[in-house]
């Protein structure tokens, strides 16, 4: 029903430039009386990796959860290819090609790895075996443990499973909420390498991260959020070099 | 973990050794022995002298001084010994026989797993046995079979959908049973108010299902945001509303006096047949309902709907993120459970002809819940068995113990069961591994997410 809200964005977009895959316009989100997002503008173009950085409580996860339909904004718009999608429930958004890897991984602990992946393909009549093989190719670790229960996997494997599960829905845009949370540096590196591969195979990625160094190495562009607003927005390499970012998010590195 | 204890324990190596060690009585073997002793005590009480109102210690004195407790204790110890010390040799023998592909065993097993038609044939045979076996029983048992067992089995398979599959704790389930019964009374003209037109009992079923469906939606819709305990309280309130309404709205429901003269089932199409007072035809009718519903629910369990329910039970956020419409599927579980209960209500009202609000006490809801858990949540054979067995049990106990005590023994059985076999008699595979993981500590009791910031590969 909520899909009927889908309407061509009439004004504001120039007809020549292709609309961004995902665009957030002046997004304001509240938790009760607390204003978590105070007008966030953000865009993700097709094929990009965009990183969303910021301190705890800056509004990163809120932004991501608004994009994936888990929260609805009080004002502002979420646009997918120029069409408004805010207010669409998360389970319907999956059908528009948005895959969400929620914070804390949330794999189905008592389903096997294979069942978890099959659940990821829930929007299709039956899971695509080729897609599953591709995911097992990306994450050989999961292939080895395909009949193990999700809850018995290590943290890194669970993260891989959560990503794999989202990919089973064949998303164009993958939203990731802190994929590095609680993982050892080596595992984080592995996961980011796989994310690069996923991006190269054609999936656009929007990623929320605390681990700024890893995220900016992967990303094309980065946004830095501070207390609910976009404080900085630049090419990833520029952000990596920016002394303020280095001070705040990478720790003062003397070189 | 042990290193932490070593550091903090101040008493030196001896005390750490004590803390680290597992006491002999903590071994599962001994806790199982305790269970067997408890069962022996219960059996002694059931089979021994029954108490009197004047001397409360009479039964205890009589039962536990004679040879009776020793006989039961001996039997229970024998079972325990076989289970604990001879299970390995037995298993070895069995394994060897399978390895040698002992023709009959392996053949049967292979056929069962491999061929769907064999499975269907066996199930059909079981149904046939269930249909014809009661013909040899006394009339009293026919009554029990229909009024109690078949009705509660129907209720239990309905509640299993709500609790076992969708994971929603519903304590007001019998309210829908009542709604079904009152629908039957209304549409056959047994209530003080006249229906717009009278219906045949069979035609009441879809109407009652619809009524219960709507009632289920009305109850379900506002409670969808609630979980676990909170949902249970709301359903409790719902039951109370239905119960009190039935009791107090005398002009419509007949109040506490109840309803009488609900018509029996009848067919009048070319040939005519009426279900009368004889319980056996009713038993066959109900068996038909049960078989039909079990068939439908088994298909449902392995369909997309069943998978969505499993996902919701595991993690609602993740379920929504994979594209499951959590609201719709939770409502659906509620509505399916409610309508099953409604069918049971129509059948019950038509069979007994007379009922009053006291037939739908809260206790009935709790008992149905107990049957589902006893049999094994989420497992259809388990639930069928659990309901049939636990309804049958107080009826046989009638011959052995003071009838007023019957439910006490049921309570004792439930306590023993929940301590030593919480997964139920015949658990579903998934449920079994859920409990196993919870006891191993792999996943928390209500297992939502992985340990945040926890283990690293």
Automatic annotation (TrEMBL), chain A:
SMART domains cross-referenced by the UniProt entry: AAA (SM00382)
What name is this protein filed under? ABC transporter ATP-binding protein
GO molecular function annotations of the record:
ATP binding
What InterPro entries is this protein classified in? AAA+_ATPase, ABC_branched_ATPase_LivF/BraG, ABC_transporter-like_ATP-bd, ABC_transporter-like_CS, BCAA_Transport_ATP-bd_LivF, P-loop_NTPase
State the PANTHER family in the record: HIGH-AFFINITY BRANCHED-CHAIN AMINO ACID TRANSPORT ATP-BINDING PROTEIN LIVF
* Keyword Transport belongs to the record: yes
Under the heading Gene3D superfamilies, the entry gives: P-loop containing nucleotide triphosphate hydrolases
- Residues in ABC transporter domain copies: 22-252
Annotated SUPFAM superfamilies = P-loop containing nucleoside triphosphate hydrolases
Q: Which family does it belong to?
A: Belongs to the ABC transporter superfamily.
- Top-level taxon: Bacteria
- State the UniProt keywords alphabetically: Amino-acid transport, ATP-binding, Nucleotide-binding, Transport
UniProtKB/TrEMBL annotation, chain B:
Residue ranges for the region (Disordered) are 438-457
Q: Where are the bilayer-spanning segments?
A: 30-48, 68-86, 118-137, 149-166, 173-190, 202-221, 282-300, 331-350, 362-394, 406-423
> What membrane topology does the annotation report for this chain?
Multi-pass membrane protein
The cellular location(s) given in this protein's UniProt record come to:
Cell membrane
Predominant location: membrane
Q: List the PANTHER family hit by this protein, alphabetically.
A: HIGH-AFFINITY BRANCHED-CHAIN AMINO ACID TRANSPORT PROTEIN BRAE, HIGH-AFFINITY BRANCHED-CHAIN AMINO ACID TRANSPORT SYSTEM PERMEASE
The protein depicted here goes by the name Branched-chain amino acid ABC transporter permease
